[in-house]
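Structure (tokenized):
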């Protein structure tokens, strides 16, 4: 008797979640195809996109541990953040530990994590990665997908027993689901946006602030945070209502705003750098979206409970989080 053919799983999106998902499915013995819109980021000099680093807690570490890369990412690359460092208006600081026993979170490079997971996925003989493949459409009942190969312009049609949507917050998989009757969905933008700035390393190549902390400047309706990077710079994220971003139209207004709210951050970022970075950037929006109802027969499964079968669909990562279905990713 011929050996039973492994069921096929298509993972759409090779970001942080899709790469991990591909490894997990490969471990279970499925034939996995991982489709990614972008080219291979390991070959790119600069990867455009959001935040350089991530704060990783035990949940993320558990996922990495399950596919054998926790040590490489966390112990050998991560920067321990043992406490929050609160910056008051008068420039004084106060530390609030995350845990009495010294347990902590880690600052890790987003690109590094993604690259390690891509390489780990490639180690599995039953994983094939298809870069430059943009999902255009899918038939959720039949498990059929159409991609554009962005390198050649060619259309590629394929099918799988299970399709996993890991294509991020503005997921095309979810857009396909929206076309179905009774799939109610709501998206709402919050008034706050965010902008990333940078505190560079000091001239002698050191951290400009104590490194083992997540630095926070809480200011009521807005705040700023900073996470350490491996090159000893800091990624600073300024969160505030778009209305306030809109009032900062000149270098004088910006400096006056910082002088009032974040005076100790001006010398750390540097006046010129602050002005240049702020005015060459645009604040990004934050949205909250929610799936309100899913039609019967959609074959939607939560992560952990799913078994591949014809035309089944699973959604995970930011695709799911923005879908608001559950928090089991
Ligand atoms: C500013 C900011 C700071 C953050 N900080 C933290 C933090 O400190 N800690 C933390 O845990 N989380 C943080 N997050 C959240 C975290 O980044 C996300 O939860 C995580 O990236 C989700 O991973 P994902 O794989 O679902 O989506 P993504 O990382 O967005 O990956 C989606 C992938 O799908 C691909 N894709 C998109 N469309 C298609 C298509 N049509 N066809 C094929 N492929 C496609 C994309 O190219 C991408 O590679 C932060 C988010 C932001 C915006």
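Design, position by position:
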């Amino acid at each position: 008797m011929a050996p039973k053919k492994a069921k096929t799983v298509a993972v759409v999106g090779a970001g942080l979640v899709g790469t991990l998902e591909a490894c997990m499915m490969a471990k279970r013995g499925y034939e996995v195809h991982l489709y990614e819109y972008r080219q291979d980021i390991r070959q790119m000099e600069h990867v455009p996109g959001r935040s350089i680093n991530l704060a990783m807690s035990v949940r993320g570490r558990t996922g990495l541990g399950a596919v054998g890369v926790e040590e490489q990412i966390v112990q050998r690359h991560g920067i321990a953040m043992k406490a929050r460092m609160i910056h008051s208006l008068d420039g004084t600081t106060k530390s609030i530990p995350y845990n009495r026993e010294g347990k902590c979170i880690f600052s890790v490079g987003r690109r590094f994590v993604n690259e390690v997971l891509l390489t780990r996925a490639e180690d599995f003989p039953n994983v094939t990665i298809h870069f430059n493949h943009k999902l255009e459409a899918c038939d959720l009942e039949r498990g059929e997908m159409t991609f554009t190969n962005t390198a050649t312009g060619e259309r590629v049609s394929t099918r799988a027993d299970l399709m996993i949507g890991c294509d991020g917050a503005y997921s095309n998989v979810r857009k396909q689901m929206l076309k179905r009757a009774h799939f109610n969905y709501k998206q709402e933008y919050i008034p706050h946006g965010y902008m990333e700035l940078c505190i560079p390393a000091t001239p002698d190549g050191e951290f400009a602030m104590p490194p083992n902390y997540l630095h926070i400047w809480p200011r009521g309706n807005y705040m700023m945070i900073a996470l350490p990077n491996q090159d000893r710079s800091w990624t600073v994220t300024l969160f505030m209502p778009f209305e306030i971003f809109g009032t900062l139209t000149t270098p004088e207004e910006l400096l006056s705003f910082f002088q009032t709210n974040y005076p100790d951050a001006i010398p750390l970022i540097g006046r010129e750098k602050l002005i240049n970075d702020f005015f060459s950037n645009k604040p990004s929006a934050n949205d909250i979206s929610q799936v309100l109802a899913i039609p019967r027969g959609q074959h939607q499964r939560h992560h952990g409970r799913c078994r591949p079968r014809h035309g089944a669909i699973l959604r995970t990562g930011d695709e799911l989080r923005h879908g608001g279905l559950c928090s089991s990713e």
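Reviewer-requested clarification: The pocket of flavin-adenine dinucleotide is lined by residues 12-18, 35-38, 50-51, 54-55, 134-135, 166-168, 172, 194, 317-319 (CB under 6 Å). The CA atoms of residues 85 and 210 lie 9 Å apart.
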